[in-house]
Design a protein that fits this description.
This protein is mostly helical. The N and C termini lie far apart (57 Å).
């Protein structure tokens, strides 16, 4: 019940609890903590934390299958003038993934491209690979096999560079489809 000015670390503490539930796949419980912290007044101290919370809320709703609610959080970050370019890029990739899940590929492509470009500026190869994987799948579904192969190879290279080998679990099914 405290004001963020009186308890500056409140957003970070609520985010930590919410993220713990998120990582264990308890998205509904995570939403409870994250919703509370996302409504905190932004201060210079907590602004980045609140944006992170909004992104995680979007991911929670994405995992719960409520893509419209998820879209709202990602769009809010993209429109937020206090959000850094990297956060806007991350939110673009996540919004692109929602469009991908809905089969709205033409809407997804530019959002993935924005995410990839921003990730490369930051040398975040894992993040870039995260958008390259569904982008590869889109090109496969559009019968653009040359573009799909190029994106698959780039995603694989970036996964190796980042060391985030858990991303291969999403890339391998796309690779299988390409080879088939």
């Amino acid at each position: 019940n405290m004001d963020p000015d009186s308890y500056p670390n409140m957003a970070a503490q609520l985010n930590l609890i919410g993220m713990s539930y998120y990582y264990f796949g308890d998205y509904e419980e995570a939403v409870g903590y994250l919703e509370k912290s996302s409504k905190l007044k932004k201060t210079d101290f907590n602004a980045t934390e609140v944006i992170s919370i909004q992104n995680t809320l979007g991911l929670c709703y994405q995992n719960l299958g409520d893509l419209d609610q998820s879209d709202q959080y990602f769009r809010a970050i993209i429109k937020d003038t206090t959000a850094s370019a990297i956060w806007r890029g991350i939110a673009s990739g996540n919004l692109g993934y929602n469009h991908y899940l809905k089969g709205e590929f033409e809407k997804a492509i530019p959002l993935f491209e924005t995410n990839i470009a921003e990730a490369l500026i930051q040398n975040d190869y894992g993040l870039a690979a995260g958008s390259l994987t569904p982008l590869s799948d889109i090109y496969l579904k559009q019968h653009k096999y040359k573009e799909a192969k190029q994106k698959i190879e780039t995603a694989r290279k970036y996964i190796q560079q980042s060391g985030e080998t858990d991303r291969l679990r999403k890339l391998y099914p796309v690779m299988s489809k390409w080879y088939a």
